[in-house]
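Listing S7. Sequence submitted for prediction.
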Amino acid sequence: MTRLGDLERAVMDVLWDVVPGTSDGVTVREVADALDGRELAYTTVMTVLDRLAGKGMVQREREGRAWRYRPAASREAHIAQLMLDALDLGGSRDAALVRFARSVTGTEAEVLRAALGSEAGLTSTGTSSGGAELTDRVDGPTGRRVADEAAER
């Protein structure tokens, strides 16, 4: 997964916060306007969005002479992929996971237990017996569950 620079992250935050999943996306001008407090040229925002499209972080669709942009994956999917990538940096994945599990708060641990319980409850066809809402929120950039993408590595 691609790490983002400060400006790329700010643009992605605008897309994640402003563009609902069912939206047709936003234009460069709308993104530039949403980046309040930053004195950015239109062409700078256009270049950042073009590079994000090249990295697969955003999808774009032509509308007349302009492009409309929307995130390729949710913020949660991006963060989950960053976490998986961090596990691939070397050393023991198991040790890193144990250390991570010991560092989370009680509420975060409950969320992890619920997600793991949901995964354990999957049938052989990949459907859940009741926790689909947890796994549905953790899609990778390809649209598949992050756990499925990690298993393919």
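Caption to Listing S7: primary sequence and predicted structure tokens for the chain studied. Confidence is low (pLDDT under 50) at residues 123-147. The helical segments are 6-18, 28-34, 42-54, 75-87, 93-103, 106-120, 132-136, 146-151.
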